[in-house]
Design goal:
The protein is mainly beta and about 260 residues long. It has two domains: about 150 residues, Pnp Oxidase, Chain A, CATH 2.30.110; about 80 residues, no CATH class. The protein is built from one helix and 16 strands. Strands 1, 2, 3, 4, 13, 14, 15 and 16 form an eight-stranded antiparallel sheet that branches. The protein is elongated. The two termini are about 30 Å apart.
């Protein structure tokens, strides 16, 4: 009988990635999918210490031990969802509600040719969007300026442009009026944390090779790289995270399991 050779297993990895953030007590809060992640890789670096014998004239190494292992990696995600944006910004995802409450007397000192965002306040710097019934009056409300002659509006973004050469003089105070459309929408703002901790799971669906599921029970995600806000071309925006796999108190840093098969 000829020698039996081991069959090579080739792998083209694909799969879904889930992140399970810790709460303040380092307890898991539930996994959410990150969506399409075109790249997730791990790098392992080890540090060794060596011992050399002093018993002969030639100094010879007679021992070597691994004393440290670092498990790091990178994660690329091109699913630019609000939850992922909040993750990359180490921030907060909130749901805002815009009420259809008419606003009058929102005063601003204006300059011809400039644009002004309606509803912008320190608490809501992006202002309101999708508004109706926009009016512009002088500071005491006795003069109604004319749209298309004195000012232009963009109701979708809630912006007003003071027309150069119109009747609204540079340096004068005007008051805006408008009614926002009643709606709810998602809002993301950056936070003060530079890194996030939780668990990372990969559910494999490989192009070739046996499916093996990965679980990292304690990882640190560190946002890194560039996030284009405007870009020329057609490349899809991708967010990048540095990954560090840590050993939890009652477990190992990395688990990789195959799938049970009915026999």
């Amino acid at each position: 009988m000829p020698i039996q050779h081991v069959k090579s297993e080739y792998l083209i990895p694909r799969g879904k990635v889930y992140f399970d953030p810790f709460d303040a007590n380092e307890q898991l809060t539930g996994e959410f999918p990150l969506g399409n992640c075109p790249g997730l890789s791990l790098t392992i670096n080890t540090e060794k210490t060596d011992h050399f014998s002093s018993e002969t004239g030639l100094r010879q190494k007679d021992g070597s031990w691994v004393i440290q292992v670092d498990r790091t990696g990178t994660l690329q995600c091109d699913n630019f969802s609000p939850s992922n944006a909040a993750l990359w910004l180490s921030g907060v995802l909130e749901k805002k509600t815009q009420a259809a409450t008419p606003v009058t007397g929102e005063k601003r000192t204006v300059i011809q040719g400039r644009q002004y965002q309606l509803g912008a306040t320190p608490a809501n710097p992006l202002g309101v969007r999708n508004v109706t019934a926009i009016t512009v009056k002088n500071s005491d409300g006795t003069t109604n300026y004319v749209a298309g002659t004195d000012y232009n509006v963009d109701t979708e973004t809630g912006r007003v442009q003071i027309i150069e050469g119109g009747g609204i003089v540079t340096g004068s105070e005007v008051q805006f009026g408008y009614t926002p459309v009643a709606a709810s929408f998602e809002s993301v703002k950056s936070g003060g944390k530079s890194e996030l901790q939780g668990a990372l799971r990969v559910v494999s669906d490989n192009a070739t090779g046996g499916n093996r599921d990965w679980y990292l029970p304690k990882v640190t995600l560190t946002p890194s790289g560039d996030l284009p806000l405007i870009a020329e071309g057609t490349d899809v925006v991708s967010m990048e995270f540095g990954v560090e796999a840590l050993k939890p108190a009652n477990g190992e840093a990395i688990y990789c399991d195959g799938r049970p098969v009915v026999v």
